[in-house]
Amino acid sequence: MPTSTLSIESILAPELTLCGVPGTSKKRILETIAERVARFYPELDENQIFNNLVARERLGSTGIGQGIAIPHCRLEDCKRVVGALLTLSEPINFDAIDNEPVDLLFVLLVPQNATSEHLELLSQLAEKFNDRSLCKKLRQCDDSDDLYNLIVSSEQESQ
Amino acid sequence: MATDLLLFIGLLFSLSILLSPLSSRIGMPILLLFLGIGMLAGEDGLGGLQFDDFETAFLVGNLALALILLDGGLRTRAASFRVGLRPALGLATIGVLLTAGVTGLAAYWLFELPLTIALLMGAIVSSTDAAAVFSLLQGRGLHLNDRVSATLEIESGSNDPMAIFLTLVLLSLAMNAGDGPVLETLMLFVQQFGLGVVGGWIGGRVLAAIINRVQLVPAFYPLLVAAGGLVVFGGINALGGSGFLAIYLAGVILGNRRIRMLPAVLQMHDGLAWLAQMALFLILGLLATPTELAGVFLPGLAIAAILILVARPVAVLLTLWPFGFHFREQVFIGWVGLRGAVPIVLALFPVMAGVEHAHLLFNIAFCVVLVSLVVQGTTLAPLAHRLKLEVPIGPEPRRRLPLDLPTTGDHELMVFELRGERWAEPLPVAELKLPPGVICSGVFREGELARVEEIAELRAGDLVAVMASPAMLEDLSKVFDTRPRKSPLEDRQFFGEFVLNGDATVGDVELFYGIDISRYEPDKSLSACFRKEHGHPVVGDKLRMGPIKLVAKSVDGDEVTRVGLNLHSPPHPRNKESA
């Protein structure tokens, strides 16, 4: 069955792969994410990214357990799928389903006219981050380049 | 003579107990095994024992049934009444009536028996036995959703009185060989049920009050529950009420009031109920004459087929339609009308009363129970799986010890054994996050006890002891995940990738996932949608919204508090083409 054509490589830029981000709270981290994404994609509005991510968290935390969160939302001016990968220097409270603090995040922003393909992608991401040994390696990365290379190469391995 | 008898009894019980692990291995109800051993020891079997003392069997049968119902009541959680009470009462009254009626009419038509005798046969086989169902499912590690399990459980506790009542009424009609006045029959019904309910309620409360006031040697509390239960049973029977209903209700009340030493009471009654089951089935097996059974095997098979394939499903469908059951759940409940000891004990009533055809009724009832145990007993676990009625549950602690002292509240000492996939790699103690209110008392490793601060990491094989209240069990079972490997029912696959709050609205889901849901108004909360679809929602209930599947993950009363969001459900064939 042909799966989604959206590989991690095509949605994640090295510039949005951030290692050891300092973060004190869930809100602060979402702000950082919005700011970094908007800096890299000027057509996107920082406030809108932040507000939509926060609104999604209000429906229920995107912390999927074991220290991992996948914040996601749709965006109006978004023309392509945008990803961002972060590891945190200190785990933060994310109200995750298992109450464990989060230190590994993959953010997914999708266009307003999101299709079932995007739901599929979200599901694949959750599946990917269910891999304990991958998550362990990601957490051990010392700089953003390593982190980027690791996540992109993990993609090729699994195919 | 007496020692020979005791030797014989001891041997029978030992054999039954030692062979019992076979039952879960071959998927046969354990009761069938006991029955088989009884028959083997009997007149046509290896034992060659002549036993046709119906009176002793009758006494043992009543005592055993009373103890089994008491144990069932003690284990029935009042919380399960929310989803199970009304449907179960429907099944226990109208359902039994319909089952008995359809089966009885079929017997009348098939065997040209007198109408009252045919209906008596229907009544005798009309009540179900859930103990057999649950021991089979638990042996397989299957857990049904609350709606189905609560309904089956309460039904089987409360339908025996109805079956007994119908049997007694029809028996008195058969004895008088005339038609009893309708009014008297109705009065008898009201008396049996009314006295049973009131007597059980008062009896249970009085017994609870006594237990909590007297100071006794610990071992006496469980015995007092058993003895008090028998007082309720015998007393209400003597007054002309349904003793079976009364002792079951007394058990429910005792089990749900905080009585002293409840864990010990439950533990001993578990043993007592098993003893009762064993005694009952062994003696019934002894009582039956297999060579006689062979003669009625075909008629017995016909009655069993009608009961299983027609009467029970019809009764279930007609009774459950107002209660928001899913069709799959109705199919399952319709199929698992497992017959246990009650029909055989009820079949002793006509024998004792000396009604004509009584031995035929007994033998047919025996055949029906055999067929039901074999056919339904062996198929119900695979069926529950096929019908997707299973719900994943977290791992249980290896040991739970309720502290049960005045100032400990409901705190327990729980010991978790670290094993399975999660513990393939050791976990640094610093990363161990215990839920609030939980205290780690120590870690056992290779026979040594260590404080958790003294060790660097937790690893497979460790036993971790914590003090916690049972409310924390769900969170704790995530921390100490001990499942061997990912099962097909793994949480994430069952409940989905993400979790939404139950008060999120349909509009929210539409907004964030870009799907169109016309079935519900946008401002309706997800919890309200579950209520609309399922009446009283239970964990595991599902809602489909476009390509997304929502699964009830936590339920508090009738409110779904957490909803699993399953993105990965296979898309609808139609959607697939358009995508």
Essential attributes:
heterodimer, A: 159 residues, alpha/beta, Mannitol-specific EII, Chain A, 6-stranded mixed sheet, 6 helices, B: 579 residues, alpha+beta, Na+/H+ antiporter like fold, Alpha-Beta Plaits, Uridine Diphospho-n-acetylenolpyruvylglucosamine Reductase, domain 3, 3 domains, 5-stranded antiparallel sheet, disordered C terminus, PTrfase/Anion_transptr (chain A)
Summarize the entry for a quick read.
Chain A is built from six helices and six strands, in the order αβααβββββααα.
Question: What features would you describe in this structure?
Answer:
The complex is a heterodimer of chains A (159) and B (579). Chain A has helices at residues 8-11, 26-40, 46-58, 116-128, 132-140, 144-157; strands at residues 12-21, 63-65, 68-69, 72-75, 82-92, 102-111. With 159 residues, chain A is of the alpha/beta class. Chain A has a single domain (8-158), classed as Mannitol-specific EII, Chain A, CATH 3.40.930. In chain A, strands 1, 2, 3, 4, 5 and 6 form a six-stranded mixed β-sheet that branches. Chain A is globular. Chain B is built from 22 helices and eleven strands. Chain B is 60% helix and 9% strand. Classes of the chains: A alpha/beta (159), B alpha+beta (579). At the A-B interface, strand 4 and helix 4 of A face helix 18, strand 8, helix 20 and strand 11 of B. Chain B: It is a multi-pass membrane protein. Chain B: This is Potassium/proton antiporter (CPA1 family). Chain B: It comes from Halospina denitrificans.
